[in-house]
Amino acid sequence: MAQTDKPTCVPPELPKMLKEFAKAAIRAQPQDLIQWGADYFEALSRGEMPPVREQSERVPLCNWAELTPELLKILHSQVAGRLIIHAEELAQMWKVVNLPTDLFNSVMNVGRFTEEIEWLKFLALACSAL
């Protein structure tokens, strides 16, 4: 590498950003770290919530998790302050944290939610299933 006379300027937010990336990568354990990292930083650049798990990651149907306050906190952090979320996006988040689809459908039916879901109402109904 050639040395230049120009000093390198590191933005003050870079260390925190890299630390958050490293934590997310450890949690996600992606098969292809480079692609996952590209998706992560692309989402950040668009102002979106970065991926928590790989999109291609599928969970066997026989190993459903139980609904816990911790899993609801994860979902709440993924929604990232939005008041409205699309049903397909929420269903995908639900699958990623390995929760049963029938529970998702039950909450959707009880709340009479359609394509656009009021997140806090959905969250409250999901809490009632704890």
UniProtKB/TrEMBL annotation:
Give the InterPro entries listed for this entry. ROP_DD
Which SUPFAM superfamilies does the record cross-reference, listed alphabetically?
Answer: Dimerization-anchoring domain of cAMP-dependent PK regulatory subunit (SSF47391)
**UniProt entry tagged with the keyword Ubl conjugation:** yes
**Source domain of life:** Eukaryota
**BP GO terms, sorted:** sperm capacitation
Instruction: Look up keyword Ubl conjugation and say if it applies.
Output: yes
Identify the keywords attached in UniProt to this record, alphabetized: Cell projection, Cilium, Flagellum, Phosphoprotein, Ubl conjugation
Q: Name one GO cellular component term.
A: motile cilium
Location in the cell:
Cell projection, Cilium, Flagellum
Function field: Important for male fertility. With ROPN1L, involved in fibrous sheath integrity and sperm motility, plays a role in PKA-dependent signaling processes required for spermatozoa capacitation.
- Report the family membership: Belongs to the ropporin family.
What name goes with this protein? ROPN1B isoform 4
